[in-house]
UniProtKB/TrEMBL annotation:
The keyword Methyltransferase applies. The gene is aviRb_1. This is 23S rRNA (Uridine(2479)-2'-O)-methyltransferase. The keyword ATP-binding does not apply. Pfam families: MRM3-like_sub_bind, SpoU_methylase. One of its GO terms (cellular component) is cytoplasm. Belongs to the class IV-like SAM-binding methyltransferase superfamily. RNA methyltransferase TrmH family. Keywords: Methyltransferase, Transferase.
């Protein structure tokens, strides 16, 4: 059994560079860390995996990954714990790392597929929030997630980890201009609803049946929300009622509730 042992080798350094956006942009690749992310990639997008690395101990523990890699004809390279630590973005990697191709979907293709529920993220800057919104979109059965050019990089390692594999379950587009995205949503027959504290009460919209319509939810920046220009593009704005003493809700939590409200209404 051959094991890659030198954490300073050019190959290891090339993988480690993918924690930086400049390297991801230059190569069109990104980093996958941990058995869960690799498992979902092998199950749903094995063609995207370029390289797969694991420590012998981790590979012994995950027989399902061994089977999935064999089924997908993805070759594994064994590495030491030191090499894996040099490659990974996390302080305590879980023994498995992969390099994958970036495979975003175009905005045109997303709306050409007649979606009924879409999440649009405008200037979402926190990687954990973005990853959680993608995970929530997946959980609610949304058809796609659209990221504008002002939103954090989809392939940031923290975003990828926060999606827990949902990145491979539904189409995600990147770099779109918000006005163009909203225009395409309207052309596809979706209403665009902004989640905003200055909006109308979501419960009233629920009572009138508005959330049963095909909907693109628009979510803004964690600190500032949506700018007036962005709000003006939406058909309406809705806010979640707060019944307790909390000052506000975390963006990803609010987005999850909004997406589930639409999912419930559309399935009623």
């Amino acid at each position: 059994m051959t094991v890659l042992e030198n954490p300073r080798s050019p190959r290891v350094r090339a993988v480690a560079k993918l924690t930086k956006r400049s390297a991801r942009t230059e190569t069109g690749l990104f980093l996958l860390e941990g058995p869960q992310a690799v498992r979902e990639a092998l199950s749903y997008r094995p063609d995207a995996i370029v390289e797969l690395f694991a420590t012998p101990a981790a590979w012994d523990r995950h027989s399902d990954l061994r089977h999935a890699a064999a089924q997908a004809d993805v070759r594994l390279e064994y590495v030491t714990e030191f090499v894996l630590a040099a490659m990974a973005d996390t302080v305590t990697p879980q023994g498995v790392v992969a390099v994958a191709r970036q495979t975003p979907t175009s905005v045109r293709d997303i709306f050409a597929a007649s979606p009924r529920l879409v999440a649009i993220c405008e200037e979402v800057r926190d990687p954990g929030n973005l990853g959680t919104i993608i995970r929530a979109a997946d959980a609610t059965g949304a058809d796609a997630v659209v990221l504008t050019g002002r939103t954090v990089d989809l392939y940031n390692p923290k975003v990828v980890r926060s999606t827990t594999g949902s990145l491979f379950h539904l189409p995600v587009s990147v770099g779109g201009d918000l006005a163009d995205v909203v225009s395409r949503a309207h052309e596809a027959g979706l209403q665009v609803v902004a989640a905003d504290v200055k909006g109308d009460d979501l419960l009233a919209a629920r009572a009138e049946g508005a959330l049963a319509r095909p909907t693109a939810w628009l979510f803004g920046n964690e600190a500032r929300g949506l700018e007036d220009e962005a709000l003006a593009l939406a058909d309406r704005a809705l806010r979640l009622p707060i019944f307790g003493r909390a000052e506000s809700l975390n963006l990803a939590t609010a987005a999850s509730v909004c997406l589930y409200e639409s999912a419930f209404a559309q399935r009623a």
